[in-house]
Design a protein that fits this description.
The strands form two sheets. Strands 1-2-3-7-6-5-4 form a seven-stranded mixed beta sheet, with helices on both faces. The protein has a five-stranded antiparallel beta sheet with strand order 11-10-9-8-12. It has two domains: 194 residues, 2-Layer Sandwich (BirA Bifunctional Protein, domain 2), CATH 3.30.930.10; 45 residues, Roll (SH3 type barrels), CATH 2.30.30.100. The protein is α+β, with helices and mostly antiparallel strands. Helix 2 packs across helix 4. The protein has five helices and twelve strands. Strand 5 and strand 6 form a beta hairpin.
């Protein structure tokens, strides 16, 4: 059980990318087992598709969790992580919604995101889960935010804002707990939890490939494989993360 594993924490003042730092650490044999990297700022962070995501000192949560994945296969891992992080934020009454496959929204603005990457090392397969959250107001590129960005400071008074370390520890433990459940129950463990937070459900959407609209329809939610379903004039179609983008239709 991952929740019973000891997490090796690494704290850095500045880093290019917490995901890249942790990936290098595993590949060079500097860490093994479950590990997490927390940085005060990152200069070359990125989101899905390699889009740039930088964080000024103290402006947000930049944490990556490393998971040796031997015998553990969760193709819908970003959805699982999104649910886990949303659960943490909801304890402060932040109105979190999830945007498939890897964004966290509040009032339809980007609050954070998840980036999962897997690779092989001499120790076997490792997956790195990157979590970014805006704690203080931050400029997020339009290509990443879509409808603008928001931060925890818009929902919590300064005296109630959690420290980065506190938020990171809670997020990491929640992720480990939800992965444990998903590894046993499959997507059934998170299906209802994601669906009730789905920011797109029953909205008109368009599916794009590199900016070109492929088809439009009504958002119908995730299926049991973690793909997103869109009801089009030609029938129900599944969108798989990594090849197409799903956007609310203007």
């Amino acid at each position: 059980m991952l929740t019973q594993a000891e997490v090796h924490w690494i704290e850095l003042d500045s880093v290019d990318s917490t995901n890249d730092y942790l990936s290098r650490a595993y590949q060079r044999g500097r860490v093994s087992g479950v590990a997490a990297v927390l940085a005060n700022m990152q200069t070359a962070g990125r989101g899905r598709g390699g889009r740039v995501w930088q964080a000024r000192p103290g402006s947000g949560l930049c944490v990556s969790l490393g998971l040796p994945m031997a015998g553990l296969q969760i193709p819908f891992l970003p959805l699982c992580v999104g649910v886990a992080v949303a659960e943490v934020l909801e304890q402060w009454n932040v109105p979190v919604r999830l945007k498939w496959p890897n964004d966290l929204l509040a009032d339809q603005q980007k609050l954070g995101g998840v980036l999962c990457e897997s690779f092989q090392t001499g120790q076997g397969a490792v997956t790195v889960v990157g979590i970014g959250l805006n704690i203080q107001p931050v400029d997020v590129p339009d290509a990443l935010s879509g409808r603008g960005a928001t931060s925890l400071s818009n929902y919590l008074p300064a005296s109630s804002l959690p420290s980065s370390r506190n938020l990171a520890e809670q997020a990491v433990f929640s992720v480990l707990r939800w992965i444990d459940m998903a590894s046993v129950q499959g997507i059934d463990a998170i299906f209802a939890e994601f669906t009730r937070r789905d920011s797109w459900l029953h909205n008109p959407v368009q599916v794009e490939d590199q900016g070109v609209v492929c088809f439009t329809g009504e958002a119908m939610g995730i299926d049991r494989q973690g793909a997103y379903l869109v009801n089009t004039e030609q029938g129900l179609r599944a969108v798989h993360a990594g090849d197409l983008s799903l956007r609310v239709r203007p």
